[in-house]
Amino acid sequence: MTGWTAEDMPSLTDRTVVVTGANSGLGLEGSEAFARKGATVVMACRSVERGESAAAEIRGAVPDATLDVRECDLGDLANVEAFADGLHEDYDAVDVLCNNAGVMAIPRSETADGFETQFGVNHLGHFALTGHLLDLLRAADGESRIVTQSSGAHEMGEIDFDDLQHERSYGKWDAYGQSKLANLLFAYELQRRLGNHGWDNVISVTCHPGYADTDLQFKGPREMGSTLRTAFMGIANAVFAQSAEQGALPMLYAATADDVIGGEYVGPGGLFDMRGAPEFQQSNEASRDEATAERLWAVSTDLTGVEYDFESA
């Protein structure tokens, strides 16, 4: 993988790639890279207006880009289902699903369905979306991939089944760490279930961007109304972060590289795993606890009402 860049991606002509959070940051960079390689990119965005603006930006760099901007609010399960229904109407298959969108370290709030926002958007929204699109992924010609974006912050996470929504006690970083750990537990459990049901043409892979300069770091301070914290994040990003373009590379590698197998975890291999070219890495022991993963899957099914039907699909 040494020196691997987006230019090393294979041709994606006739491939359909769905990217959540495609209007900014890693999602925007990833969408442009997929489009540059010939993919039809479904840009799943909470705001269609911002999505169309991002698509115009991509077309400025890639004039022949094939982009489909659609509303997908991961904080509203009915909206997620409507998005999936729309894809079923207009597409026969999905080749890559990038579960990329997320929120980080924000003051406590709730989704439309009453979930703590970080857990609801980062984990439950993607759990529901993936379940709704399972049959389209199965229908792909050749191997399809589900790429779930996690974070090094999973290492400070703990799945608190007694207070998943952090109603009794809320720490913004604790909640973020829990959601990122949940991403990994979900992705690994999904790979086990795909294998157990003989779905050899669909694999589940995870990744993390290291420390990338995106708008994600600013959302929390802005919602808190903290000018000082916002300024501090700007300085930290300028000094320590790699670009969003570089931060998107692990997702692009996980989605397209020919040596990727189900259950892999891809991240930047440079200083403290915060920057550099993508490489295969190991997430922490908690993320690979199968008992916790099975319990989280059951709870997620109950909370979202989304059943993964491996048999009929």
Automatic annotation (TrEMBL):
Pfam families found in the cross-reference section: adh_short
Domain of life: Archaea
Keyword vocabulary terms for this entry: Oxidoreductase
Single GO term (MF): oxidoreductase activity
Protein name: Oxidoreductase
